[in-house]
């Protein structure tokens, strides 16, 4: 009988089957089938043994197996979990994933977690139950329990856009630190010295890397000031936090906003306060019609479609066992597009 392990190895283990459950439980395959499908009476002791074996092996029924199994024994389905399917960044990432999967004869199932770890857990379980061959996930938080569970069950996982700290998952991310450093350098070149940082959740690598790039760029020009760093930014609380920062005696003359949704919230608030021509802004991830805004918005542009393509390639290599066995941590270059907003609000010496 094959041994199933809960080791922390990078590669996925084989997905458990009903035959494996039957072997561990010491019952017939038909007994396992009756328990899984609820299709017949089962003695209490046999039921308990099947349930124990199912939990031990991490087995989940593949509810689409009969309809979707191909000659290679796979479903042809890949689960893609993102924050928000309507976010332009993730829409483009999805497009990149689709390009690679279509050429491979596979299809992505896509769902948004809303950055809620509980919802992410539900989605991962549902995808696994529907027989996905692998998962591409923008993690909803720093905890990895649900992702580890799927990997132990035999499902390869690639994380995108951000990775939990000390992650042991294959990953594809933008060059976050270099992108923010370029943004700060553009602002300081324009004449700004007091620059604020707006970012997302701490403990996620994308936030930490962008903050590190911010700190690095400010060592020489004017110094790094913790009072000008706002993280864990949410739409509801941002106006109050921005007002307090901009009203202070050491208010910033410019802002680096490190997520496209945060940039949208920031611009909306600056316009509401009639400050759009008094505070410089550089965003991270482009926003729709950025060049048509007043003033036109300068942004660090990642390449979400390429991030998606790279993630899909890694996942397919894992499934085919054709790629490198070591952990993959690929970084996609960013580029800075200056449209004029970096020159707004430059203090007069």
UniProtKB/TrEMBL annotation:
<feature type="domain" description="HTH lacI-type">
    <location>
        <begin position="16"/>
        <end position="70"/>
    </location>
</feature>
<dbReference type="Pfam" id="PF00356">
    <property type="entry name" value="LacI"/>
</dbReference>
<dbReference type="InterPro" id="IPR000843">
    <property type="entry name" value="HTH_LacI"/>
</dbReference>
<dbReference type="GO" id="GO:0000976">
    <property type="term" value="F:transcription cis-regulatory region binding"/>
</dbReference>
<protein>
    <submittedName>
        <fullName>Substrate-binding domain-containing protein</fullName>
    </submittedName>
</protein>
<dbReference type="InterPro" id="IPR028082">
    <property type="entry name" value="Peripla_BP_I"/>
</dbReference>
<dbReference type="GO" id="GO:0003700">
    <property type="term" value="F:DNA-binding transcription factor activity"/>
</dbReference>
<dbReference type="InterPro" id="IPR010982">
    <property type="entry name" value="Lambda_DNA-bd_dom_sf"/>
</dbReference>
<dbReference type="InterPro" id="IPR046335">
    <property type="entry name" value="LacI/GalR-like_sensor"/>
</dbReference>
<keyword id="KW-0238">DNA-binding</keyword>
<keyword id="KW-0804">Transcription</keyword>
<dbReference type="Pfam" id="PF13377">
    <property type="entry name" value="Peripla_BP_3"/>
</dbReference>
<keyword id="KW-0805">Transcription regulation</keyword>
